[in-house]
Structures are given as structure tokens and as C-alpha cells.
Amino acid sequence: MKYLIILIGLFTSTLAVAQDAKAQGILDKVSAKIKAQKTFYVEFSAQIKNTSSGQNETVTGKGWVKGSKFCATYGENTIISNGVKTWTVVKEEKTVYEADASDDGEGMNPKKLMTIWETGFKNKYEKEETLNGEAVHVINLFPKNAKGSEYHTIVLYISKSTNELKKAIMKSNDGTVMTYSLTKFTSNPVVEDTKFVFDAKKYPGYHVVKD
């Protein structure tokens, strides 16, 4: 959960002024595609490695988005937001953290994670290569506020044919590398509003902490 929460900080720095024109053009297309979706569903895997500490773990996740509402699972943790309130369910602690949606900056919203480059980053087009048999653009992101960021570099892999984010490698200053791989993306599925409602009955014995 630690490195997922760290991502929230990446969305709070100011927008970089200087951008790579080629990279920016590609990223704009990806952003436009995501924002055109009335709803979408994603599946992903995330590998977290740190050679110094010996950490090497992989978590999988899913996310449903409908406008400003979202529901996402990260390993055994679940985050639910109705656009007004956000509930973070931490299974290991048997605790639910409730906060105003505006307070968390929507940093864990899959839509925000799929457009991470929009706020606080400079970008640079690196190269074109093949990923799992598919041609992709490789673009580097660098936080404008380097001293205040946990990450010094984020490497994006974007499909040339579909303008979809396929992979992101997040390199932190403490040596941790988080590799996020998109394994499924579904455009405009039918998602009922009940998906974005926290139901305490589904979490018996959990303690609710309100910010």
C-alpha cells in the first residue's frame, strides 16, 4: 500500500513549462482517448522491487471508472469513490479510511493514473520499440519539483496503434522500481452506480476512520 499511496504525491506538483513536442503530441492523444470514455475498465499488474532491501513483490489490480466516480482494487486493498467521498479499505488492518474526494486529489483514481503526465512533469520522447510484439512509443517523464518527488523518472510505453498506455516504470529516489503493466482495457462497459457506493455490510468487523 505504501508505494501506491506515494503515487498521490506525484499529482500535486506544478505543471512543467518546457515539453518535448513529439512526446506531448502523443500524450495529448492518450489523454483525449481516456477523457472521451463515459466508462472504462482496466486490469493491471504492478511489480515492486528494491535490490537494497530485497523487496520483490507483485500485486494485481482492477479499476472501474464512471465520470468522477471510481472503484479500484490494488492487491487486497480497495478504494471506492462516489465523487464526493472516498473510502480506502485496507484488509490487513481491517480498517476503512473515509475522506472527502477532493482531499485525496483523486490520486488513486484509475483515470488519473492513466493520465499521470498531465500535471507536474516534463516529458521527453526516447525511442520506438516493440513490447510484447506491439510497436510502442517510449517516453520519459521527469518531475519538475525533483527535490519534492519520490520518483526521479517515469518511463511510459504507449501503443502506436491504439494510443493506449501499456506500461509504466516508476523509478524512486530510494532505489525502488515499480513496474505497472496494463493487461486489459475495456471501453464504455455498463457499470452500475452501486459499484461506487461503500456498503459497510460487506466489511463486517472493519473500523471506519473519518478524516
CATH architecture title: Clam
What is the residue-mean pLDDT, rounded to a whole number? 85
Q: What name does CATH use for the topology?
A: outer membrane lipoprotein receptor (LolB), chain A
The helix tally amounts to 3
What structural class do the secondary elements suggest?
Answer: mainly beta
Q: Summarize the helix and strand pattern as letters.
A: HHEEEEEEHEEEEEE
* CATH C-level category: Mainly Beta
Shape: globular
Number of strands: 12
% residues in beta strands: over 45%
Within CATH, the superfamily carries the name: Lipoprotein localisation LolA/LolB/LppX
Count of discrete structural domains? 1
Q: Which features would summarize this protein structure in a list?
A:
single chain, 211 residues, mainly beta, outer membrane lipoprotein receptor (LolB), chain A, 13% helix, disordered N terminus
